[in-house]
Amino acid sequence: MTTVDKCPVAFPLRQPGQSFPPPQYLQFRKQQGLVSTTLPSGEHVWLVTRHEDVREVLTDPRISSNPSHPGFPRAAKTGGVPSQDEVPGWFVALDPPEHGRFRKTLIPEFTVRKVREMRPAIQQIVDERIDAMLAAGNTGDLIADFALSVPSLVISTLLGVPHADRDFFETKTRVLVTLTSTDEQRQAASKALLRYLNRLIVIKQKRPGDDLISRLLADGTLGKQELSGVSMLLLIAGHETTANNIGLGVVTLLSHPQWIGDERAVEELLRYYSVADLVAFRVAVEDVEIGGQLIRAGEGIIPLVAAANHDGTVFERPDEFDPSRSARSHVAFGYGVHQCLGQNLVRVEMDIAYRTLFERIPTLELAVPMTELPIKYDGVLYGLHSLPVRW
Ligand code: HEM
Questions:
Q1: Residue 92 CA, closest ligand 1 atom number
Q2: Contact at 8 Å (CB) between 173 and 239?
Q3: Whose CA is nearest to atom 11 of ligand 1?
Q4: Nearest-atom index, ligand 1, CA of 234
Q5: C-alpha distance from residue 220 to each of 68, 90, 98, 210 (Å)
Q6: Ligand 1, atom 17: nearest CA belongs to which residue?
Q7: Which InterPro entries does the UniProt record give (predicted)?
Q8: What is the ipTM of this complex?
Q9: Any idea what the Cα angle at residue 339 is, between residues 323 and 201, rounded to 5°?
Q10: pLDDT tens digits for the chain (391 residues)?
Q11: Residue 57's closest CA among 314, 325, 266, 337?
Q12: Whose CA is closest to atom 38 on ligand 1?
């Protein structure tokens, strides 16, 4: 077993000036794969870095996603994972069989066919964002103006959340996905979002629309409280993750222009950045052996998907951006029963976003040196705070 000293900063091991994934991941993987560490909260946790081991953790029924089990890593709770008591319907924190009822109800909304039908609406949102950028001049912040606004508008359109309320839900979400937010700030943000969605559901009961929340209300499988929690999960998961990936992807495509317009770039960008590296937290509910290491019941586990996606035994030259490789076996969307519900939507959003952006603004370039881009060292998700560009 390899032991790491108590993590000195908010857990992610991301440090200003350091590359991502953090160089320690490679060191851990080479040593043993599984590494024991202590979170800033004082809790002991296992970090899992090998691709094979990460997939095992995410599929073993003796390993739970439910934060109400003793030993569940606190960084997850403080990283925006509420429990069922706090937010009923937050099904990413449920294990089978309870989890299955939510998943089954939602899957028809996120199939490849369903997402294909959304293409014109997504294209329109992307075009309007670019129109606004062009109308504003020849400089901008690509995160605020595009990478965040596109997925935000797409998920609100799908759910039936008024576009005018974007500022509200984006601000509350940011509190939930910032590791340095206090428990009080996080609870307040979570309550405000739930109150907002409860009110929206009452409105949609009276005046249903052509949107996901109205369809789930009509379907009746989920109770109203559950529906608020489900909507909150989709709203949060649906914009921050994709926003980070779109922003980082633009930076990479600017320095690898030969891949612009090639749909293989999307899959490779998902692998390469693995922005949701600290999302799939778990706890062992029975003793279990992973990668030759005994993990005892009650011990927390963090499968580091960025480490797995840079595992050189699965991906040759893993730290190189190379869309010609087959990146499909990446675990950027997790693996097993909780594998990302929105993945088909993400692929379409990223594809349309990159194609249209570089087609309509072919002279796009960074307005600051790459080394000056403000990286989110304090985020549950890896990404950029802003991305100054000009054209
Ligand atoms: C689950 C990543 C975008 C909805 C997950 C998980 C990961 C992930 C790693 C697994 C969590 C776990 O095992 O505990 C990503 C990435 C995205 C993205 C990298 C974008 C680049 C989206 C979008 C939506 C979404 C756009 C909604 C439309 C969900 C939901 C779950 C989930 C509902 C929970 C599924 C379940 O528990 O069955 N995502 N996600 N995600 N994601 Fe995503």
A1: 37
A2: yes
A3: 280
A4: 27
A5: 27, 17, 17, 16
A6: 241
A7: Cyt_P450, Cyt_P450_B, Cyt_P450_CS, Cyt_P450_sf
A8: 0.99
A9: 120
A10: 444 443 333 455 666 566 677 777 777 777 677 888 877 677 788 999 999 999 999 999 999 999 889 988 876 444 455 666 778 899 999 999 999 999 999 999 999 999 999 999 999 999 999 999 999 999 999 999 999 999 999 999 999 999 999 889 889 888 887 877 887 888 888 889 999 999 999 999 999 999 999 999 999 999 999 999 999 999 999 888 999 999 999 999 999 999 999 989 999 999 999 999 888 999 999 999 999 999 999 999 999 999 999 999 999 999 999 999 989 899 999 999 999 999 999 999 999 999 999 999 999 999 999 888 988 877 778 899 999 999 9
A11: 337
A12: 338
User: Looking at ligand 1, which residue's alpha carbon is closest to its atom 18?
Assistant: 241
Distance 241 CA to ligand 1 centre (A): 8
Q: Which atom of ligand 1 is nearest to the CA of 110?
A: 28
DSSP 176-211: HTBTTS-HHHHHHHHHHHHHHHHHHHHHHHHS--SS
> Can you list the domains of the chain with their CATH numbers?
24-390 (1.10.630.10)
Q: How far is the CA of 363 from the centre of ligand 1 (A)?
A: 33
> Residue holding tokens 């997790």?
334
